[in-house]
Specification:
The chain is an alpha+beta fold. The protein contains 4 helices and 6 strands; from the N terminus they run E-E-E-E-E-H-H-E-H-H. It has a single domain, classed as Ribosomal Protein S5, domain 2. A 6-stranded mixed sheet has the order 1-2-3-6-4-5. It is elongated and about 75 Å long. The N and C termini lie far apart (65 Å).
């Protein structure tokens, strides 16, 4: 859904991404291509890790818009891997709102698919979800 920023009149596009237990609420605002996550620059938040940064910015790079929109993110829950994947899904959904033509290239790259994998629960009698105690014959 497109909203208009009250103070500047610029168009703002929203997208929500989820992965594991992480949730990222993403806003796309016309700008210079900087990423702000929880009030910090994106490279600082993702610890200058090129994998996390590349994953988070992948939908913009696919469409060639990496220097045209600022990405403002509020991320919570999970770790950096889950949050960076959640940011990727949120950015891709926001880009679909920006222009419906963006949907097919993002879909073909797999950026609009929510990854359903999450941590398996621990079962009683086991050390972890599947790790059993050591077997003793005698």
């Amino acid at each position: 859904m497109q909203a208009t920023d009250t103070d500047s009149g610029r168009a703002v596009y929203w997208g929500t991404g989820r992965r594991k237990s992480a949730i990222a609420r993403v806003r796309l605002v016309p700008g210079t291509g900087q990423m702000i996550v929880n009030g910090k620059p994106g490279d600082l938040y993702f610890q200058f890790n090129p994998n996390y940064l590349g994953v988070a910015k992948a939908p913009l790079e696919t469409l060639g818009l990496e220097n045209e929109y600022d990405v403002l993110v509020k991320a919570e829950g999970g770790g950096l891997t889950g949050q960076s994947d959640a940011v990727r899904l949120g950015v891709a959904r926001a880009l679909c709102q920006l222009d419906p033509e963006n949907r097919s290239p993002l879909k073909s790259e797999g950026y609009l698919t929510r990854d359903p994998r999450s941590k398996e629960r621990k079962k009683y009698g086991l050390h972890k979800a599947r790790k059993a105690p050591q077997y003793s014959k005698r």
